Amino acid sequence: MQIHQIKVEQGGKRALLDLNPFFYPEKAVRETASAFKKVCKASFRQENNRILVELLPTKGADCRELSLKFANYALSASREMH
C-alpha cells in the first residue's frame, strides 16, 4: 500500500513526510521528533501550508516502518493537544 504523504528513498536511508498541519500541528511534530530522537534524526520545516519532515533512521531501523510510527505518534499527540 502506498501512502502518498510518505516517501522512502531507494535503499531506505531517508524518509520524507508531507504532513497537513491541520492534523499534524508543528507542536505535535516537535514533540514526536523529541520522542523518536533515539531511533532517528528528524528535521522539519513549513512549506506551502504543509509540514515537511525528513527522517534519518539510526541503528538500521526500517525506514518505512519508522515513518508510519512517526506519523501515527504525531497524530496521537495532536489529538491529546485538543
From the structure above, extract its key features.
29% strand, 82 residues, 35% helix, 2 helices, alpha+beta, four-stranded antiparallel sheet
Provide a descriptive summary of the structure in words.
The protein has 82 residues and is an alpha+beta fold. 35% of the residues lie in helices and 29% in strands. The protein has a 4-stranded antiparallel beta sheet, with helices on one face. A hairpin with a 2-residue loop joins strand 3 (40-47) and strand 4. The longest helix has 19 residues, at 63-81. The protein is globular and about 35 Å long. The mean pLDDT is 90.
Number of helices: 2
Low-confidence stretches: none
Query: What structural class do the secondary elements suggest?
Result: alpha+beta
Order of helices and strands: EEHEEH
> How far apart lie the N and C ends?
30 Å
Give the helix level as a range of percent: 25-40%
Tell me what portion of residues adopts beta-strand conformation: 25-35%
The biggest beta sheet reads: 4 strands, antiparallel
Radius of gyration: 12 Å
Mean pLDDT: 90
Name the overall outline.
Answer: globular
Number of strands: 4
Order of strands in the sheet with most strands: 1-2-4-3
